[in-house]
Amino acid sequence: MTTQDRDRRRFFKAAGAVAAGLAFAEARADGRSDRNDDFIRSVQKARIFDLSHTWDENSPIAGVNPTYEMALEATHQGTRGTFDPDGQLSFTSEVQKWSGQHGAPSIDALGHIGYNGKLFGGVDAAASTSDPRGLGRSGVGAHLDIAHYPKELLVNRGVLLDVARFLQPQHRADPLPPAFAITDEHLAETARHQGVRLRRGDTVLIRTGWGQYFAGNPALYKGDEAAGVGVSGAKFLVREKARVVGNDTLTFEVRPPIAFPPEVPLFQVFPVHMLLIPQNGISIIENYFLEEIAKEREYEFLLVVPPLKIRGGTGSALRSFALVPRG
After folding, report:
1. Any bridge partners for residue 94, and if so which?
2. Dihedral over Cα of 161, 166, 167, 170: its sign
3. Cα atoms in the Cβ-side hemisphere of radius 13 Å centred on 314
4. Distances in Å between the alpha carbon of 263 and those of 151, 186, 188, 231, 277?
5. What is the pTM (predicted TM-score) of this model?
6. How far is CA 79 from the centre of its chain?
7. What DSSP character marks residue 68?
């Protein structure tokens, strides 16, 4: 084992300890402090990859969701002197309007998608949204809102499968073609090629290369055709026991997001969403920025996913990031 491998193991072991909520009840106070100091130093030494795009009114949004709006309700010019006669203090604040489950990146709550009238666990979908204040505010399905996102998944082992690079080794920076469906074979072979082993409970991220279009060509990014995960690819993620999945596109799944028999029993729209969320309880993250971490070939990392804790929320925008050991 190389020194680098040992350093990585130490880093993930220390980070995993806090993620799992391990307590040192038998330790003396000074021993606990030493452990905490070691952990803090370990994390502070980590390299951080910001997986978020910058979000504004020009960012691409799926047509089924409301547009993003932001306006300053208070300005420094208007507030100076509000609380003191000499005009020392000024402040500013804004009002924002947007769909709760869309940002850059964004995560879907388990109650976001229904299948045949049911949410994950067989919860009645119609009853869960009968109170317009939010998902589950009726008393049905409250545990499926974004406020109940599992605490243990706020920090989790993340794996990146760079499908675009694997399938296009001579043009690894290029995005996959529009309407390209990522299959189970593509995912399995990418993992094998990268030397990455998926583990039960992982958060699995998939690079299509389309994240380059988020700011560079937003019209193409939100268009009718885009690369993404197909039904067989989604079934692979289910078999591998992923807890959360994500990628660098607007909808995660391939667009157009449709499937026909015999791939599915009946014609379906958003078949991957229905398979992953209501049928298997796997959350989906969309709109990741994966270019930097893919360029560095960092395929295993500690992933931080911090959704807003909003009662009844169907999802949340994220400021998500990955940590890896330096060197």
Report:
1. 72
2. positive
3. 19
4. 35, 17, 19, 8, 18
5. 0.88
6. 37
7. P
Cβ-count burial of 317 within 10 angstroms (0-12 exposed, 13-18 middle, 19+ buried)? buried
* Contact between residue 211 and residue 288 where contact means Cβ atoms under 8 Å apart: yes
H/E stretch holding 193 reads helix 184-194
Residue where the block lists tokens 């988020």: 214
Q: Does residue 99 register a pLDDT over 80?
A: no
Give mean pLDDT, residues 299-317: 96
Which DSSP category does 311 fall into? T
d(CA 50, CA 305): 11
Could you tell me if 287 and 8 are in contact, meaning their C-beta atoms sit under 8 angstroms apart? Answer: no
Q: What is the pLDDT of residue 9?
A: 66
Quote the tokens at residue 147: 């406020």
In the chain, count of helices (H) and strands (E)? Answer: 11, 15
Label residue 32 left, alpha or beta by phi (over 0 means left) and psi (-120 to 50 means alpha). Answer: alpha
Residue labelled with tokens 């940590």: 323
Q: What is the DSSP letter of 317?
A: E
Distance CA 215, CA 59 (A): 7
Q: Quote the mean pLDDT of the chain.
A: 91
Alpha-carbon distance of 247 to 255, in angstroms, equals: 13
Amino acid at 150: P
pLDDT of 145 above 70 = yes
Share of the chain above pLDDT 70, in %: 90
Look at residue 191 and tell me whether its pLDDT is greater than 80. Answer: yes
Name the more confident of 37 and 182.
182
Tell which phi-psi region holds residue 14, choosing left (phi > 0), alpha (psi between -120 and 50) or beta: alpha
